[in-house]
């Protein structure tokens, strides 16, 4: 199965879901990340690096995580590192982590 471009140029195209892999390391969900904070933090975003080898469209070949929130253009000094990495409550602080 594949997908084709819609006949007109839409800003959003429907892409079928990618099947979940059922082999290591994807089936366990255990991935090692490294967060590096500059001396200018919180004025500069941390650098997130994935240390578990993986192919993902948001991770470059060296393991650097490429997300808008971790770029200088989108980072706010009031943003907390847990907001960029937590995906359970819409991007807020992780449960049990004080504000």
Automatic annotation (TrEMBL):
It comes from Mohoua ochrocephala. It comes from the Eukaryota. Transmembrane segments: none annotated. InterPro entries: UBC, UBQ-conjugating_enzyme/RWD. The lineage of its organism: Eukaryota, Metazoa, Chordata, Craniata, Vertebrata. This is UB2L5 enzyme. Residues 90-99 have a biased composition (Gly residues). Residues 1-99 form the UBC core domain. Residues 1-26, 77-99 are annotated as: Disordered.
């Amino acid at each position: 199965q594949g997908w084709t471009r819609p006949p007109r140029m839409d800003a959003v195209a429907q892409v079928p879901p990618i099947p979940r892999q059922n082999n290591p390391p994807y089936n366990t969900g255990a991935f090692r990340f490294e967060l590096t904070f500059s001396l200018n933090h919180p004025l500069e975003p941390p650098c997130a690096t994935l240390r578990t080898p993986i192919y993902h469209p948001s991770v470059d070949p060296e393991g650097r995580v490429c997300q808008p929130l971790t770029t200088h253009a989108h980072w706010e000094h009031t943003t907390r590192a847990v907001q960029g990495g937590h995906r359970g409550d819409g991007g807020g602080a992780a449960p049990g982590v004080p504000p």
